[in-house]
Specification:
It is a single chain. It is built from 11 helices and 5 strands, in the order ααααβααβαβαβαβαα. By secondary structure, it is of the alpha/beta class. The chain folds into 2 domains: 89 residues, no CATH class; 153 residues, Methylglyoxal synthase-like domain (Rossmann fold, 3-Layer(aba) Sandwich), CATH 3.40.50.1380. The protein has a 5-stranded parallel beta sheet with strand order 3-2-1-4-5, with helices on both faces. Helix 7 links the parallel strand 2 and strand 3. Helix 1 packs antiparallel against helix 2 and helix 8 packs parallel to helix 9. The protein starts with a helix and ends with a helix.
C-alpha cells in the first residue's frame, strides 16, 4: 500500500482523466491506511483495558468505548473470562521476595479522605503483594482498614508503623512530625476534590512538608498506581534502592539550601548589629 501511494505521489505526468483516477486511488489508499491505523489502535486499547479491568474502579477510565470497530467496555464483564482476569491480576500484583525488609526502610504512609476510603481499600487489595513489603502507617481509619485487609496473612509478616489519629483530629499533623523526624519515606494520600475539609490547613501542611523534604507523594489514585511500579522495581530481585531514595535517606527540596543561606545572612546581620551596639 505504501509503495503504491508513493508512486502515485511521485508520478505527476498524467492526463486530466488519469489525474482524477489517481486522486480517487490515493483517497482509497489513505482511507484504508486510516482504517487500519484505527483498528490497530483499538486492538492496543483493548489489550490495555483488559489488563486494567481488575483496577477499573481505581483508575476510572472515561473513554470506555474505542471506536466503531471495537465496542469494548471496561465495565462489560462478559467480554472477559475468569482466566484473563486472573492473569491480569497476577501481572499487576505478582508475589515476590523483597530485596529489603520493612525494618530497613522508612514507613509508607496511607491516608484517604472519607469519600476515597472505598477506593483506598480497593487499591490496597489490588496491590497487597507489594504493600505488605513495607512498614505501613497512616491515619486511624486507614490503619484499621489495612489490618482488616491483611488479617489472613501469616502472623508477623505484616509490619505496621505508628498509628496516627484521624485527620481532622490531628492525624495529618502527626504524619508531618514523623516525616520531619525521618521516619516516612513515602505518602499515598487519596484526597477527595469534591468536598470541603475542616482540617484543610493540616492537609496543606502535610503536602508542603512532603515538598520540603522531597518525600515521595501521590495525591490521587492514578499517580499512586504509577508510583507503585517504581516501588515494585525498587524491591524486586537484588533491589534497586536508587529508584526509591526517600525510603532510605533524608532528602530535601533543591531550594532548601538557598533558604538556609538566606536565614544565615539574617542571623549574621543581627549578630553584627548587636556587636556594633555593644561597642558603642
Amino acid at each position: 500500500m505504501q509503495e503504491e501511494l508513493n508512486k502515485l505521489v511521485d508520478d505527476d505526468d498524467e492526463s486530466l482523466d488519469e489525474d482524477i483516477g489517481k486522486r480517487d486511488r490515493m483517497s482509497e489508499l489513505l482511507s484504508g491506511a486510516i482504517g487500519k491505523s484505527k483498528r490497530d489502535s483499538n486492538t492496543v486499547l483493548e489489550r490495555i483495558a483488559t489488563q486494567l479491568h481488575p483496577v477499573r474502579g481505581i483508575i476510572c477510565v472515561q473513554d470506555a468505548n474505542f471506536g466503531r470497530e471495537s465496542q469494548f467496555d471496561l465495565n462489560y464483564e462478559s467480554t472477559l473470562t475468569d482466566e484473563s482476569l486472573e492473569k491480569a491480576r497476577n501481572v499487576l500484583d505478582p508475589e515476590f521476595k523483597a530485596a529489603y525488609p520493612p525494618s530497613d526502610m522508612r514507613c509508607l504512609a496511607l491516608v484517604s479522605h472519607n469519600g476515597m476510603k472505598k477506593t483506598m481499600r480497593e487499591f490496597v487489595g489490588a496491590n497487597k503483594n507489594l504493600l505488605k513489603k513495607f512498614r505501613l502507617t497512616g491515619t486511624q481509619s486507614t490503619m484499621t482498614m489495612l489490618k482488616e485487609v491483611f488479617k489472613n496473612e501469616p502472623a508477623g509478616t505484616i509490619v505496621f508503623g505508628p498509628a496516627c489519629a484521624s485527620g481532622p483530629l490531628g492525624g495529618d499533623a502527626e504524619l508531618v512530625a514523623l516525616m520531619v523526624a525521618g521516619r516516612i519515606g513515602g505518602i499515598l494520600f487519596f484526597q477527595d476534590p469534591m468536598n470541603a475539609h475542616p482540617h484543610r490547613a493540616d492537609i496543606d501542611c502535610l503536602v508542603r512538608q512532603a515538598l520540603v523534604h522531597n518525600t515521595m507523594l501521590a495525591e490521587n489514585p492514578t499517580s499512586a498506581w504509577m508510583l507503585l511500579q517504581s516501588l515494585r522495581l525498587g524491591l524486586m530481585g537484588d533491589g534497586r534502592a536508587e529508584l526509591i531514595p526517600s525510603f532510605f535517606f533524608s532528602l530535601q527540596s533543591p531550594t532548601v539550601e538557598e533558604y538556609k543561606a538566606q536565614q544565615k545572612s539574617v542571623v549574621d546581620a543581627q549578630k553584627a548589629l548587636v556587636s556594633s551596639m555593644n561597642g558603642i
